[in-house]
Amino acid sequence: MPKTVVPSLTGLIEKVRTYSPDADLMAMQRAYHFSREAHCSQKRSEGSPYINHPLSVAYILADMRMDTLSIAAGLLHDTVEDAEVTLDDIRTIFGKDVSFIVKGLTKLSKVEFRTKQEAQAENFRKMLLAMSEDIRVMLIKFADRLHNCGPSAFCPKASSSVLQQRRSRSTPPSRTGWASAGSRPSLRT
């Protein structure tokens, strides 16, 4: 089993400096300390300190070579929903750009639905709206989802079994049956 890397602020700073040596790291550092304080009593489902989640999201954003304001927003992405923090607090401390991104992330996850189809349609609508306002909202949301359903044993069993089935297939999934018939359609037009 591969060793799990425990994320750290120092590691994040080093990672950002590899692609942006002159980056202003203050907002990112303040966001880390603010998020750590906001989530100080919270734990993830596997028992690790909650700060490891936003820090892991920040690592993913750094792997994508995002700017430090985006990484700061990634570190703060759950504070409004999961801690006693308001968007006004975020705006006052981190400025309107970071607040705007955090607000977009918060809006993406607030609505409850009656049916799965209604939820999917609304999720697509919200994602398109978020992308039109600021693509960074979607990139951070994707990093959040990626970490939440990463190679951990804590994903829902249904998702986990679907992933295992996909990984064990030797042919791609097919809606038309071409994979099971042993032939592939031509990509030429």
Short description:
The protein is an all-alpha fold and 189 residues long.
Description:
The protein is mostly helical and 189 residues long. It has a single domain (9-149), classed as Hypothetical protein af1432 (Orthogonal Bundle), CATH 1.10.3210. The protein has eleven helices and no strands. Helix 1 (9-19) runs parallel beside helix 3, helix 3 crosses helix 9 and helix 6 (87-94) runs antiparallel to helix 7 (96-108).
Descriptive keywords:
189 residues; disordered C terminus; Hypothetical protein af1432; 11 helices; mainly alpha; single chain
- Overall geometry comes to globular
Strand content: under 5%
CATH-wise, what's the superfamily? Hypothetical protein af1432
Rg value: 19 Å
Counting DSSP E segments of at least 2 residues, the number of strands comes to: 0
Secondary-structure topology with pairs:
Blueprint (H helix, E strand, L loop, with lengths): L8 H11 L6 H13 L13 H12 L4 H9 L2 H4 L4 H8 L1 H13 L7 H18 L1 H14 L8 H12 L9 H4 L8
Helix pairs in contact: 1-3, 2-4, 3-4, 3-9, 4-7, 4-9, 6-7, 7-8, 7-9, 8-9
